Amino acid sequence: MRHLALALCLVLSFAAQAAERAIEKEVVVPAPVEKVWQSWTTKAGIESFFAPQAEVDARVGGAFHIHIDPLAEPGMKGADDMRYMALQPMKMISFDWNAPPSLPEARQQRTFVIVRLADVDGKSTKVTLTHVGWGDGGEWDKTYAYFDRAWGYVLANLKKRYETGPMDWTDWMDNLKKAHAAPSAGK
Asked: Rounded CA gap, 161 and 155, in Å?
């Protein structure tokens, strides 16, 4: 009996180690699925809650470029050069993703995000976001922690977009202009 218990513990230990690390977030948005779908698949939709600038071509392999800092150099604007991996209309969107520019080692790799939409009552949509493909240690752990916080903000902004209207990026852009105009430390 003791050997059976030990074997069971070993199997459970290996299973726990084999489980992939993932970020999972969920929100109920007060809008029908069609509207939420448009929020994730159009330039105007992305700019209404996610970032002040985007390039969007909602097809497999199409652009999903999210420019958190549109004033930055190409390749440093945010999720530059990302693409849609899969689209199941009104149900699921998947795209590749990268780390923020402040984490250059992890930024060289790509992770994957899956966004699922489910009708709640014809007037609301449950949005479930899963982010996978993580490495281990160093910048990977910092990137994971960053996005564990960031995706919560993104989904809260999506909900807020339908509660109070599209995001106003004026203050954000003003702060970016000031930051880009400020002399860099060490120059």
From this structure: 10
